[in-house]
Amino acid sequence: MQRVGVMDWHRSDDFAPLMLVMSGQEKHRLVTSLREIAEALIVAWPTYDGEEYIAAVKTCLDAIQDKIPAQVARAALIRAAAEAGISVIEVAH
């Protein structure tokens, strides 16, 4: 049962995939959904501070609650990656 106001955050229908090139055990991390944005930010991120990182976490939560489009959270992730020195490979449509 899905609650009103909470989107299916596992879905990737309107989400252009991207690849994060990170250091550590998992060098390449494919991100195709809000769930994977959340996992990247909470589990795999190299640092838990920074203005763009905090904004990306908040934006991801807003997108999961269906307050904003998933693409806004994707853009916030890209800005946080730039702040953290993480390379991003985007898929062009």
From TrEMBL:
This is DUF982 domain-containing protein. Gene3D superfamilies: 6.10.250.730. It comes from the Bacteria. It comes from Rhizobium leguminosarum. Pfam families: DUF982. InterPro entries: DUF982.
